[in-house]
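Run log // design_07
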């Protein structure tokens, strides 16, 4: 009979510091230092070359009075809301249906996830031609079914440009679907068997068992959605360029235009700092809702 192994001694403080050093160095190099630099430069006027001139809060005052920035800020909030209250519930709904393994469920799972392995730039070009005023599939289909009066320039109509750029984001649910399917697969089957014996319908089982037990996955998806909405760039940039009249402008696209087109680096960094603050507030809101549901 072999004697049990003695417990391993706890690592010393110096050893723990050595283990953490690579991760801390990477975080400092690629997060902390850029954040400090951005925060400082947001109070300066800088064209990318030469010395930066300190101007205090002038960049933030300019942002407050800039109609394009206000439009970008509002549109980004719309992206977040659509992601949280349309995209995420759609991911949950499809995951609940596919978890029941209906006919051809593997085919649908693959079809829904396929866009996630394709470049967002390629997909944006695809949707640009879908909504094209003369070559687009949407206007051609409307013409075929006799709804010529509904035809319009979807990407350059102020009433439809923003929603046209959002549509791909809404229907590409593959990532969230897989996330929820993975979480649902960890739920013990005995819970569903007991609920079925009690006469609970499939809808009741999903509402009372599945959704409460995947709330952490829902919170994680909400974090992903908020981050994706805040950095949304490809679809508005390629499909509309932020137009018409900034109606589809987002914060990421605004920062890009101020930095690359206008050479207003200080202003773009101020806009980036506002975007970071907005993201922090939204993330704190998501975590507060999660803690409230757990209680």
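design_07 sequence
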């Amino acid at each position: 009979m072999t004697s049990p192994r003695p417990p391993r001694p706890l690592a010393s403080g110096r050893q723990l510091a050595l283990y953490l050093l690579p991760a801390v160095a990477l975080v400092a190099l690629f997060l902390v230092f850029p954040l400090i630099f951005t925060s400082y430069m947001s109070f300066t006027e800088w064209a990318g070359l030469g010395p930066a001139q300190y101007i205090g809060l002038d960049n933030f005052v300019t942002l407050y009075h800039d109609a394009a920035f206000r439009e970008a800020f509002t549109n980004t909030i719309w992206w977040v809301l659509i992601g949280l209250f349309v995209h995420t519930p759609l991911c949950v709904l499809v995951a609940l249906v596919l978890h029941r393994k209906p006919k051809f469920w593997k085919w649908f799972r693959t079809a829904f996830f396929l866009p996630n392995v394709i470049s967002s730039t390629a997909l944006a070009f695809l949707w640009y031609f879908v909504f094209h005023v003369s070559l687009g599939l949407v206007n051609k289909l409307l013409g075929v079914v006799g709804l010529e009066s509904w035809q319009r320039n979807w990407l350059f109509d102020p009433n439809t440009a923003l929603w046209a750029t959002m549509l791909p984001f809404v229907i590409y649910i593959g990532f969230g679907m897989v996330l929820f399917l993975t979480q649902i697969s960890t739920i013990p089957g005995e819970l569903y068997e007991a609920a079925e014996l009690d006469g609970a319908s499939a809808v009741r089982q999903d509402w009372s068992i599945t959704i409460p037990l995947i709330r952490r996955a829902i919170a994680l998806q909400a974090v992903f959605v908020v981050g994706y909405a805040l950095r949304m760039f490809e679809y508005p940039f390629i499909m509309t360029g932020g137009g018409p009249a900034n109606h589809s402008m987002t914060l990421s696209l605004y920062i890009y235009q101020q930095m690359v087109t206008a050479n207003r680096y200080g202003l773009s960094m101020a806009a980036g700092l506002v975007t970071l603050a907005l993201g922090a507030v939204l993330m704190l809101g998501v975590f507060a809702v999660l803690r409230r549901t757990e209680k």
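The longest strand covers residues 44-45.
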